[in-house]
Design brief:
Elements lengths: L4 E9 L2 E6 L2 E7 L1 H11 L4 E5 L11 H8 L6 E4 L5 H9 L4 E4 L1 H5 L2 H10 L4 E9 L9 E5 L4 E6 H11 L3 E6 L11 H10 L4 E4 L5 H9 L5 E4 L1 H4 L5 H10 L7
Parallel strand pairs: 1-4, 1-12, 4-5, 5-6, 6-7, 7-10, 10-11, 11-12
Antiparallel strand pairs: 1-2, 2-3, 7-8, 8-9
Length: 256
C-alpha cells in the first residue's frame, strides 16, 4: 500500500476559515493564511481550500483569497468552489495552485472533466463528490450525489458517478458525506469503501473525523488513499504529527 495522505481542509467563507455540521451552522475557525502556514509546519501532506459559497452565490472563486494562501504554502495545494471552465482553472494554476477540484460543474457539464484532464493532466484534476444516504424506500439511489453545497439532489448514484468521472479523466475523487460532515462520529465507511473499491484512482475520505480511530478506519475499512479533516485540526483536538504517529503505530504507511 502506498503511503497515505493527511489533508487539512480550509472551508472559506467571507475570507475566513469556517466549519459547520452537515454543511450548515457555520462557525468561525481561523484565518486561512495563518492556518495554511501552521499546517505546512506541522507536516500536512497537502491542503484543500474550498470557497464554499462560490457556487451557491453563482460566482467564481475569490482569487484574492487564494493568492494570499498560495504565497505561503510549501505543500501541494488544491482549490475548489466556483470553478466552471478551463479558464477558471488556468487562473488558479497561474497563482501557484497544484490541483483544482470541481463538483457541481462536473455534474452539470461532465465534458469539462475530459477537457481539463487533457489540457492540464489528470494529476491536477480532482472531482469532488458530495453524497447522502437515502432510506431504502425513498425511490432514490441509496447513495446519492448532491450538489450546490448539498442543497440540490441529483438522482445520481454515487458509485456509478465515481466510475464515470474516472473514465472521463479525473485524477482523484474527494468524497464527502453530507450526513457525516462535522458530526465527529466517523467517516461514512460504507460510502467510502463502495467508491474506493469501484475505481482505480485515489479516493480522499471526507466528513466526520472526530478522533484518531476514525482516521485509521478510513484507511483500513474504507480503503481510502487519503483523509481530509477540518474540525479536529482547526480547533487543536488532534495535531498532524499526532495523527501520523498513531497511524504508523497501527501499521498504516504515512509520509514523513
Amino acid at each position: 500500500m502506498d503511503a497515505v495522505r493527511i489533508i487539512p481542509c480550509l472551508d472559506v467563507k467571507d475570507g475566513r476559515v469556517v466549519k459547520g455540521v452537515n454543511f450548515v451552522d457555520l462557525r468561525d475557525a481561523r484565518d486561512p493564511v495563518e492556518a495554511a502556514e501552521a499546517y505546512c509546519r506541522e507536516g500536512a501532506d497537502e491542503l484543500v481550500f474550498l470557497d464554499i459559497m462560490a457556487t451557491v452565490e453563482n460566482r467564481k472563486t475569490r482569487l484574492e483569497w487564494v493568492r494570499k494562501v498560495a504565497e505561503k504554502v510549501t505543500i501541494p495545494f488544491a482549490v475548489g468552489g466556483g470553478i466552471s471552465s478551463t479558464e477558471d482553472m488556468q487562473d488558479l494554476f497561474d497563482l501557484g495552485v497544484s490541483k483544482v477540484s470541481i463538483n457541481t460543474a462536473a455534474v452539470k457539464n461532465p465534458q469539462l472533466v475530459t477537457r481539463a484532464s487533457k489540457e492540464f493532466g489528470k494529476g491536477r484534476l480532482v472531482v469532488a463528490i458530495d453524497g447522502r444516504k437515502n432510506p431504502p424506500d425513498s425511490g432514490r439511489p441509496r447513495l446519492e450525489v448532491v450538489v450546490k453545497s448539498g442543497t440540490e439532489a441529483t438522482g445520481l448514484d454515487i458509485v456509478k458517478w465515481a466510475k464515470r468521472v474516472e473514465q472521463l479523466g479525473a485524477g482523484e475523487i474527494l468524497l464527502t458525506s453530507k450526513d457525516a460532515d462535522g458530526t465527529k462520529q466517523g467517516y461514512d465507511l460504507e460510502m467510502t469503501r463502495a467508491v474506493a473499491e469501484a475505481v482505480g484512482i485515489p479516493v480522499i475520505a471526507s466528513g466526520g473525523a472526530g478522533k484518531l480511530e476514525h482516521l485509521y478506519e478510513a484507511f483500513a475499512i474504507g480503503k481510502a488513499a487519503a483523509v481530509l479533516a477540518a474540525s479536529i485540526f482547526h480547533f487543536g483536538e488532534i495535531s498532524i504529527p499526532e495523527a501520523k504517529r498513531y497511524l504508523k503505530q497501527k501499521g498504516i504507511a504515512v509520509r514523513t
